Amino acid sequence: MATRSQNLVNPNAEIVAASQCLLLNVAAARGLQSVLKTNLGPKGTLKMLVGGAGQIKITKDGSVLLHEMQIQHPTAMMIARASTAMDDQVGDGTTSTVLFTGELLKQAEQYTSEGLHPRLITEGYEAAKDMVVDFLDNCRIAQPNIFNDRETISNVARTALKTKLSNDIADNVTEAVVDAMMCISEEDVPIDLHMVEIMEMQHKSGSESCFVNGIVMDHGARHPDMPKHMKNVHILTCNVSMEYEKTEITAGFYYSSAEEREKLVDSERKFTDEKVNLLIDFKRKVCKPGESFAVLNQKGIDPVSLDMLAKEGIFAVRRAKRRNMERLTLAFGGVAANSFDDLTEDMLGWAGELHEEGLGEDKFTFVEHAKQPKSCTILIRGPNKHTIDQIKDATRDGLRAVKSCLEDKCLIAGAGSFEIAAYRMLMRRKTAVTGKAKLGVEAFARALLVIPKTLAENSGIDVQDSVIKVEEEQERVESDNDGNQKGHLVGLNLENGEPFYPCSEGIYDSYIVKRQSLHLSTVLATQLLLVDEVMKAGKAMGGKPPSEEDE
How far is it, in rounded angstroms, from Cα 285 to Cα 278? Predict the structure, then answer.
């Protein structure tokens, strides 16, 4: 009856109601889950995305997949957008969120098909989520001195990167990520990841990606006689034009003789030469034997000025990018100069080494060995574009994973250990919930197991056998420690399918990612369960309403 009345209001409306609507939402969530399921964990497989113009992207990062895929189903699109928004905020957990949301809807479908109202299931889900979040707070491992604990930071970065890169590349990038974070982070100061420049060079192999204690710029000197390698370098960053400037308004000059024209040209040249000579005199004053001088200018330097600087042995870069100029002063010290009239030694930065590398027609300038850097570079190398993109995406995730653990000062045991322990806790405590909502708590508990089960499945291990072994070991550990789980969670070893202690192997998950994933998945699942009608009846449906004449 309701559908008939809505059709009278808008005869063009497409309506899916009641049980069919729930099936539609569950099918969409499970479809998205099946796409991302094989990517989870260090043993996950890769996906190849091919663009309309034949571009290739190979990745197993859930966030990249959801960003790049063309998703048309409205429910799947909603889940994808929410998951990628979470990734943008906390840096990880996209695949886990999609899997958990899909599993919550799948578990709920079993009860709704037997006649249980979705509202009762959602009440159970909310109660279970609150219990699991409290359990998460009890299980977290506090790390008050994490800023000085390089080994723990390395373990966090390695756990995040090994789910997205091969082992040899992941180990290399882990060291680069940890060095970069140790460089820019200070206790009780907000961490700005923009201070880490990610530069890419398409040559050599991905395992040669490295950390650079300084800045790498994707342009070099514009004079062949300038030095290519310097040590103990005084660095002047400036925003001063060293070239002939045209007038801002249209002006014409009339000469009565060639001599007058020569005088005008000489005076224009003299104006620029005076600025260059001020710079050369300043270099002679500050440079001691064994020291050298470099000028990194945001504006232009004309060929005559370049030649004057090259004769003096000064390395000069013109039209440097603004982001590089800002990072240079943070990395090497000094102050950006806007005029050469009042140069002082305090305005100079200092670098241990500066050298230039050529790669085909491109030039790269390496400014390295800063004393107290607040900015640095991760240099990503790779034989082709899609390898570089894959490492670049993983590096960003690694940086954000380390940032989260430094800000939270706590960690959670990985390898599916938290999910199995939370499942056991919910099955014990479901009696605290009365009525049919108890079924929602059971469904939530079973949905949690999708993470360890998928990890086992992707590793080629028997799913039921391995999860039962971990449960039995967890039960034994709890009885030995009087029910205290903190630091004693048991995970799944993906090499042999046996239980093990993830903390002893340095396998950690981010606390904030786990917390956000639990909140987001529950909200998405409860909202989708409570949708009982999907109407495609917007204003832009196309056809006009029937007129009286047509009738």
Answer: 11
Alpha helices in 333-462 (DSSP H): 385-408, 417-429, 437-448, 450-458
- CA torsion 334→336→339→341, rounded to 10°? -10
How is residue 119 written in tokens?
A: 């509202």
Single-letter residue type at 384: N
Cβ distance 383 to 389 under 8 Å? no
Q: Contact at 8 Å (CB) between 249 and 309? A: no
How far CA 455 is from CA of 37, 38, 164, 189, 515, in Å, comes to 9, 9, 14, 36, 20
Q: Measured between alpha carbons, how far is residue 14 from residues 4, 222, 367, 391, 538 in Å?
A: 12, 64, 62, 44, 10
3-state SS assignment for residue 398: helix
Q: Decide: 67 and 84 in contact? Cβ < 8 Å.
A: yes
Higher pLDDT, 129 or 386: 129
Residue 98's pLDDT is 93
* Torsion sign (Cα): 474, 475, 479, 482: positive
List 412's β-bridge partners, or say none: 509
Amino acid at 309: L
Cβ atoms 524, 100 nearer than 8 A: no
| Residue 435 dihedral angles phi and psi, to the nearest 5° | 75, -160
Residue 481 near residue 488, CB atoms below 8 Å: yes
Question: Which residues, other chains included, contact 356 with Cβ-Cβ below 8 Å and sequence gap of 6+?
Answer: 220, 221, 228, 229, 363, 364, 365, 366
Closest CA to 18 of 537, 538, 531: 531
How far apart are alpha carbons 482 and 421 in whole angstroms?
15
Q: Look at residue 432 and give its three-state secondary structure.
A: helix
Contacts of 550 (CB under 8 A, 6+ apart): none
Helix segments in 38-90, DSSP class H: 62-68, 74-90
Residue 191: closest CA among 243, 153, 161, 227: 153
Rounded average pLDDT over 454-468: 91
Distance CA 98, CA 356 (A): 46
Residues 6+ apart with CB under 8 A from 166: none
What confidence tens digit (pLDDT) does each residue in 7-51 have? 545 555 555 566 688 888 888 899 999 999 998 888 888 888 887
| C-alpha 231 chain-centroid distance | 35
- Cβ distance 415 to 492 under 8 Å? yes
Q: In the block, which residue shows the tokens 């895929």?
A: 69
Q: What does the radius of gyration of the chain's CA atoms come to, in whole angstroms?
A: 31
Tell me the torsion sign for CA atoms 394, 400, 403, 409.
negative
Model-wide pTM > 0.90: no
Beta bridge partners of 380: 200
CA quadruple 86, 88, 92, 96: dihedral, nearest 10: 30
pLDDT tens digits, residue range 57-71?
Answer: 888 888 888 888 888
